[in-house]
Design brief:
This protein is an alpha+beta fold. Helix content is about 25%, strand content about 30%. A hairpin with a 4-residue loop joins strand 1 and strand 2. The longest helix has 17 residues, at about 1-20. The protein is elongated and about 90 Å long.
């Protein structure tokens, strides 16, 4: 009887001290988190689609307001007044928790495209990296604007 009691206590202590807390800060991918100033700009927008570029090893999300979602649903590439689109691009990195998986890494760019008035051209702004600095160089903006406007809505199956 004493042997069984000691055996049970030893096994219980083994399990008690052998367990470790797996809920560490490494479980949260803080590297991919948006800076506070940019997080507010996405508030109220919906994800339209996501894309992965395996050649450049990047992951992107396209957000938009209801007017942008309606236009994209109609397969139009001409922006209408009041539309707002945001494309966020991250580098990819290996997931430390899952072998072979990739997750977003450092923020590469945060692009905003909006049309305030039908009389104006769409306003495009590109912020690069976590340092939240606006890219002043406008070379290549036309290509980026065209890429954003040609995005299609993600297909979400109904139940």
């Amino acid at each position: 009887m004493k042997a069984t009691h000691y055996f049970t206590v030893i096994i219980s202590l083994f399990f008690l001290f052998g367990c470790s807390d797996k809920t560490s800060q490494k479980a949260l991918n803080e590297e991919a988190s948006l800076p506070d100033g940019l997080r507010d700009k996405v508030t109220g927008l919906q994800v339209i689609n996501s894309s992965i570029n395996t050649k450049k090893q990047t992951t992107s999300l396209l957000y938009g307001n209801q007017k942008a979602i309606k236009r994209i649903g109609e397969n139009s590439t001409v922006m209408k007044e009041g539309e707002k689109l945001i494309r966020i691009t991250w580098s990819q990195k290996a997931d430390p928790n899952w072998i072979g998986a990739v997750i977003p890494g450092k923020l590469i760019s945060f692009e905003t495209l909006e049309l305030l008035s039908e009389k104006e051209n769409p306003r495009y702004e590109k912020i690069e990296g976590n340092s939240v600095r606006i890219k002043k160089d406008t070379l290549g903006n036309g290509k980026s604007i065209k890429l954003i406007l040609n995005q299609e809505m993600a297909i979400i199956p109904n139940n």
